[in-house]
Design a protein that fits this description.
Length: 540
């Protein structure tokens, strides 16, 4: 019989494990409590140090998917489909497919010339003023950018410091896609500015979200901040992501341009182009799947704690490298669209390019970057070229195309020359698009990617709109459009070279780089001297 104070008696008396556990608690450290502390430290590390998890393969794939489902909007839908759509509102009879010789001695067909004149003739009359479908599209495009400007200023803070980034992207994508669907319900020119403006505003917001997400994914791959010797890793990751996304976008643009061509030649072109718009809206809507895998909310900084002295969206003006990079994006977008629109109009109206060859031109322009951009990435790695140097390469190619076109404006370009320079210019446009946003993100401080992305999105779209307006306002004068594009391209080169803009300098000013001698936490803002103030509202 055991004594009453024995351990066995304690077990049998209903006080299960009480004594034994008390003894073990006194003799053994609480491992569970230590694990909880580690987990809590990790959460603080993520929330206050802007730590980013590396993106999954599915997240990257859906980010590429959105590029494929949206890039065509500013490359095909607005500058090509909508002007054609508006031009079909006019009344025209059955035109015979007869040929004639134009002033250059080239064989042209009446149907193609009727299409060209329908796009360029001033058939829309408003209060004594007359506008062509191209000019009507340009005005609507500009109205959309005006509408987008205050919206972007409002969402900039929410992209960086809110928790509803996904809701913003879903709403903008849904609104833009919905406005594509009823575009052919009312056969009147007055309704198209509403459609175009809504689509432009929605697309500009979506581009800001998409660009901001790229910045967060880059940080997830590379960490933050980096030492200077680690910066090539960030450069390689950013180039890899942006180049493949641009290639996917070009593939999507090629699909829509091919579909547009096939819908141009049924007996009822208006219905055919309406089908293109419906398909475009549905395709854009498919890209919304990206949003569900792009859950990268901001750090747990309440919006009410953010100082209201300087609007968050204006913080970009504190970083000269960022201002120069965004202005370079504006100039590059203007130049590439001015060359594209002016050259296509010249090929149709002056060189009488047949519809089949026009399709080949579009396909070549949109598909060549799928081959050239990935091939240029090893060259970039070999030359250790940053985003500025790759943009300079794109601008040099673009200036070369504009210069040759301007010099030989009075000559009859052969199809071979047209296709060669189309391939050259498409590579230039792809480089400028892919590396323009990389440079802007290199100059964007941690936690301010949204504010910088809205400026990038709006300025890029503004440059594209202005380039389109200039090229289409003077059809038949290829020298003026290419000459303007040449001058703007040269100015962009001068801005990047003499503006003292560089990826390294921009990243250092934005706080992405630290000195080799700095010791402490690898997360910016978590060194021992700054632990008393965990929420960093301003990034040095």
């Amino acid at each position: 019989m055991a004594e009453p104070g024995s351990t066995l008696d304690v077990y049998n008396s209903g006080g299960l494990h009480t004594v034994r556990e008390d003894e073990e608690d006194m003799a053994t450290p609480d491992v569970k409590d230590a694990g909880m502390k580690i987990e809590m430290a990790r959460e603080v590390y993520k929330a206050y140090g802007d730590f980013e998890e590396a993106p999954t393969k599915l997240e990257i794939f859906t980010w590429y998917l959105y590029s494929m489902c949206s890039y065509f909007i500013q490359a095909v839908l607005i500058p090509i489909v909508f002007p054609l759509f508006i031009s079909e509102i006019r009344s025209h009879g059955n035109i015979p497919n007869e040929s004639f010789k134009n002033s250059r001695g080239l064989t042209c067909y009446l149907r193609e010339m009727d299409l060209f004149h329908g796009l360029t003739n001033s058939t829309i009359h408003v209060n004594g003023s007359a506008f062509s479908p191209f000019e009507w599209t340009s005005i609507s495009w500009g109205v959309g950018l005006i509408i987008a400007f205050p919206i972007l200023g409002f969402i900039a803070k929410h992209l960086d410091h809110g928790q509803n980034q996904q809701l913003i992207a879903i709403t903008a994508t849904a609104i833009g896609a919905v406005f594509c669907l009823p575009s052919g319900v009312f056969k009147t020119k007055w309704i198209f500015p509403l459609y175009i403006a809504a689509i432009v505003a929605a697309y500009t917001v979506c581009t800001a979200f998409h660009t901001r997400h790229l910045g967060r994914m880059i940080r997830g791959f590379t960490g933050h901040p980096l030492r200077k010797r680690q910066f090539p890793h960030r450069r390689g990751v950013a180039s890899w992501l942006s180049i493949h996304a641009t290639s996917a976008g070009c593939l999507g643009a090629a699909v829509i341009s091919t579909f547009t061509y096939h819908m141009l030649y049924p007996s009822e072109k208006f219905i055919g182009l309406w089908i293109v718009c419906i398909f475009s809206g549905l395709k854009w809507l498919v890209g919304i799947f990206h949003v569900f895998f792009a859950n990268r909310p901001a750090a747990i900084t309440s919006l009410s704690f953010i100082p209201s002295g300087t609007p968050h969206v204006l913080s970009v003006f504190k970083y000269p490298h960022a201002i120069g990079s965004i202005f370079g994006v504006f100039l590059a977008s203007f130049s590439t669209m001015c060359i594209f629109a002016g050259a296509v109009l010249h090929a149709i109206g002056e060189l009488c390019l047949t519809p089949q060859h026009l399709l080949h031109l579009w396909l070549l322009y949109f598909l060549v970057p799928l081959l050239t951009l990935p091939l240029l990435q090893p060259l970039q790695k070999f030359l250790k070229a940053d985003a500025v140097k790759m943009q300079l390469l794109g601008l040099l190619l673009s200036v070369t195309t504009a210069g040759f076109g301007f010099y030989y404006q009075l000559k009859n370009w052969s199809r071979g020359h047209i296709m060669f320079f189309a391939a050259l210019q498409s590579t230039a446009a792809g480089l400028l698009h892919a590396f323009g946003r990389i440079l802007v993100l290199d100059c964007s401080p941690c936690g301010k990617e949204g504010a910088f992305s809205v400026w990038y999105s709006w300025m890029r779209e503004s440059g594209t709109c202005l380039g389109f307006a200039v090229a289409t306002a003077i059809p038949g004068m290829i020298g003026k459009s290419l000459g303007t594009a040449f001058v703007v391209g040269v100015v962009a080169i001068l801005v990047l070279i003499f503006g003292n803009i560089s990826s390294i300098g921009g990243a250092k000013a934005a706080g992405h780089l630290i000195e080799e001698s700095v010791r402490g936490s690898p997360v910016h803002g978590l060194d021992s001297t700054e632990m008393r103030k965990p929420i960093q509202l301003e990034t040095p």
